[in-house]
Amino acid sequence: MRIISTKIDGVFVIENDPIIDSRGAFTRLFCEKEFSSILGNRHIVQINHSITRGIGSIRGLHYQCPPFAEMKIICCLKGRVWDLALDLRQGSPTFLQWHAEELTPENAKVIVIPEGFAHGFQVMNENSELFYLHTSFYEKSVEKAVKYNDPTVSIQWPLAVTDISERDKNHPVINKHFIGIKL
Asked: How is residue 33 annotated by DSSP?
């Protein structure tokens, strides 16, 4: 495992080298020892799995506010997704900037998205599956979101949007009074 810093402090990409032989492949996606520099005192408390069927579909951009702000560690088990982290941290030098990575089983990349970021993704292959590790439990009362096509952040999705839930379609845009999430 190689931990790669991105242009946004706190967002990391983990590169793995799958072991491939005639039987198939083996990839280690998480190791507490190797992730200790990223995790600090956090612990994985929840694991989620998503399947998104249609090419061009978008999920997100979701986040949780303190005291249930969460770090997410995400990899793609099947298909191909364009996975995005949007910095919403109050006072961050990269406030409202985003970083995206293409995740596939073949490239075995893992993206680490810390607290204070909104997360979303677009499906680039049918029936794509993501595997998420979370450092906080889901708490509906503090869940928030940013609209996927918010002009303030100008996300350049790689494909035309073909499907998005009514809920995600109707998230608010960032207003001029939004100063970020205080962690």
From this structure: H
Residue 148 annotated as catalytic:
no
Per the omega criterion (within 30 degrees of 0), is the bond before 183 cis?
Answer: no
Which one of the listed residues 43, 49, 62, 177 is annotated catalytic?
62
CA distance 159 to 124: 8
Q: Note whether 50 and 97 are within 8 A (CB).
A: no
Cα separation, 88 vs 13, in Å, equals: 19
Q: What SS3 class is residue 50?
A: strand
N- to C-terminal Cα separation, the chain: 29
Stated length of the chain:
183
Which of the following is catalytic: 132, 148, 171, 177? 132
Active-site annotation holds for 63: no
Per-residue tokens: 149:
């096509």
CATH class of residue range 2-19+27-169: mainly beta
Digit-by-digit pLDDT tens for the chain (183 residues) are 999 999 999 999 999 999 999 999 899 888 899 999 999 999 999 999 999 999 999 999 999 999 999 999 999 999 999 999 999 999 999 999 999 999 999 999 999 999 999 999 999 999 999 999 999 999 999 999 999 999 999 999 999 999 999 999 999 999 999 999 999
